[in-house]
Task: structure prediction
Amino acid sequence: MDKMNTVIYLVMRRMRIPLLVLLTVYTVAIVGMTLMPGVDDQGNPWRMNFFEAYYFVSYMGTTIGFGELPYPFSSVQRMWVTLSLYMTVISWIYAIGSLLALVQDEALRNTIVESRFARAVGNIHEPFYLICGYGDTGSALVSCLEKRLMRSVVIEIKPERINMLILENYPVYVPKLCADASKPIHLVEGGLKNPYCAGVVAITDDNLVNLHIAITTKLLRPELTVIGRVDSHDVAANMASFGSDFIINPFKIFASKLHIALQSPNLLLLRDCLSGYKTSCQLLEAPQSGLWVLCGYGRFGKAVYERLKGKKDLRLVVIEAMPEKTGLPAVECIKGRGTEADTLQQAHIEEAVGLIAGTDDDVNNLSIVMTARELNPNLFVVIRQNRADNQIIFEAAKADITMQPSQIIANHIRVLLTTPKLVDFLRLTKQRGSQWTRQLVTRLKKELHSMPPEIWQMTINQDSTPALWEFLKENLINLRCLQMDPRDRDNKLACLPLLLIRGEEKIQLPDDTECLRQGDQVLWCGKPGAASWMEWTLHDPLVLTYLATGQIVSRSYVWRWLQNK
Result:
């Protein structure tokens, strides 16, 4: 039974008795009026016919009162009218009261909301992503997708978060539903079976709910991309067994980032700038050797410890308030929160080069940083921010690296959804070594004039690049041609190709003379706005002809005919 049938069923079930009462009262009043004797204007006996009685009782029941018709009533008729008036008014009060109670019924209201939601999602005829969870991570992800005019649908169980989404002024409407995303029926209402659904993102606060969403998606739509957030090894393993495409653990992602910062800062700079995580692409120089103090040995602390424990020149000291619950690492461990000066001094904070404040309490993390800086002002500070609404005070703390799980997850998912080839490029870059990476960073700064880069990817097919697809059927064209400014081919767009994928072959930084083929995929990097100009070239055959040959073809059929003559 669909939602509309459910609404009709609920209305008819709750309004059955009031409607029967109204029908009975009106029937009795109308039949009675036809039986009451009266006199006409000549003094002859007269009774109302059925239509006259129906017409009179209809406006009498609403207390409008147009008067007695077609002749003045007799005393008997007036007594019946008085009785009918009270009966109809009481029945209407009863019916309206039942209707108001029905409107306030939570089950009916939820059913109507779900029906509207399912109808709005069904009217989407372009690719969209079903996002389950609208906390800090969900709001950041939806905002990132909206900036690229990519559609999204949100299911969130907490009403206050849905209210926050309603207040957002997004350029594209976002259908939303306040419901439990772990229930398959709500996923189906959210467009799971819609052919335009491009993927499902499970980023709720509950690992088991995310697991349930991933399992439901893979059972109902195995071909869909599933991205799930987990911070439990057992749940991650279970989710992987059902074929989830991407399993995201924010603590492992950040631990990897910190490890890269210590091992290859240029690679970290390149990754952050290309993924849009940083707006100011400045090199972060973290101390690669010496003593580091790690405060907090929970999920975050363990992930960081596993990544850093293998570095030979780096020594770790762990501070943990409840080691009996978290366990103890195979290094020096101090029991305490780290907010006290004596605890930090026991961890040799005066000799330390770096501090990681990684507890699950924002106030404690800020307190740890402030206390530690009083003892050692030269510390390289890494701080964990658990709540996005504490952004202002964390900016005031001026830590060298701030780890905000929601932002890390949202940024990572955005890259996976919008430019997945960037992940391949960064993986290949990591194998190249630090010197090659440093040269690439220098080249990007020169090409883009030290501006934050914009990343986009292009697939040569008939849908996304129609002009280029048709041109390649009979002609050759290289990457240099696409880098020309469509307004003036003598000028070059501020962009360069990062990766060319042709079948199984992956070419990093392909040469400008590389000729393109149908089916090629190219990852581009450029100044903001360069992608829009290139998009014009890829869709307009006349512009592409101008860039490839230098010939300006008129858009008028008449002028083209005259030129041929």
Notes: The first strand starts at residue 38 and ends at 39. The longest helix spans residues 3-35. The chain has a mean pLDDT of 88. The chain has 24 helices and 20 strands.
